[in-house]
Amino acid sequence: MRGAAPRCPACRARLPAAAGLLCAGCLRRKPRCGQVVAAFDYELPGDSLIRAYKGQGRLSLTPALGALMAMAWRARGPDLPLLLVPMPASPAALRRRGFNPAAELAAVVAQCQRLPLSRYGLRRTRIRTSQTGRGRRARWRGLRGLFVADAALAGRDVLLIDDVITTGATAHAAALALRRVGARCVGVLAAARTPAPGWQNTP
């Protein structure tokens, strides 16, 4: 939540002062998930909110986090007629938590923004191997073909909803799945964005 630092407009990673418009990873990979917006950075005090929400099941935080996300999206410019699609949780994460954080947040954002929501517009095609501790390149390779999109999304402009954005690899994989059915990912909206590449999100 600290002050403004130069950021990559594609993945929102912090940029060194001498960097160009895009970070080195996005220049190589050309992410297809459009604009990335997060309500705050995954650092104090915001990280404690995310840990309580995801790790302790504090669903009472959903309205506040979702409202912060909606405010962040409104701040970036005029509204567009978008369809909200949450990132699907892994079966293991659903069993462990009992809920999909992204789907719960998406419902709040949809209500705040008065936008339609396709809660199951994306689904996982397989169980992925753990991404914890893996570098950017390994994460991107490990997520190929992870998602399939509902054919009913063809022709729609989609805003992906997630709880935390790390390297952007998961959003990129989801955007590719949307493109395969004729949908367009115009952006990703999350509660938090990790400012440092060393931190890894739990699936």
Number of helices: 7
Major sheet details = 4 strands, parallel
- Number of folding domains? 1
Q: Beta-strand level of the residues, as a percent range?
A: 15-25%
Unreliable runs, pLDDT <50, ≥5 residues?
A: 196-203
* Helix vs. strand class: alpha/beta
Pfam families: Pribosyltran (PF00156)
Keywords: Transferase
Family: Belongs to the ComF/GntX family.
GO molecular function: transferase activity
Brief rundown of the structure:
This is Phosphoribosyl transferase. This protein is an alpha/beta fold and 203 residues long.
Task: Provide keyphrases for this structure.
two-stranded antiparallel sheet; Rossmann fold; disordered C terminus; Phosphoribosyl transferase; alpha/beta; 7 helices; four-stranded parallel β-sheet; 34% helix; 203 residues; 6 strands; single chain
Structure description:
GO terms for molecular function: transferase activity. Residues 141-195 form the Phosphoribosyltransferase domain. Keywords: Transferase. This is Phosphoribosyl transferase. It holds the Pfam family Pribosyltran. The protein has 203 residues and is an alpha/beta fold. The protein has one domain (33-193): 3-Layer(aba) Sandwich (Rossmann fold), CATH 3.40.50. Helices cover 34% and strands 18% of the residues. The chain has seven helices and six strands; from the N terminus they run H-E-H-H-E-H-H-E-H-E-E-H-E. It has helices at residues 24-29, 46-55, 62-75, 91-97, 101-113, 136-142, 169-180; strands at residues 35-41, 83-86, 122-124, 147-149, 157-165, 184-193. The chain has a four-stranded parallel beta sheet with strand order 1-6-5-2. Helix 7 links the parallel strand 5 and strand 6. Helix 3 (62-75) crosses helix 5. The chain starts with 23 loop residues before the first helix and ends in a 10-residue tail after the last strand.
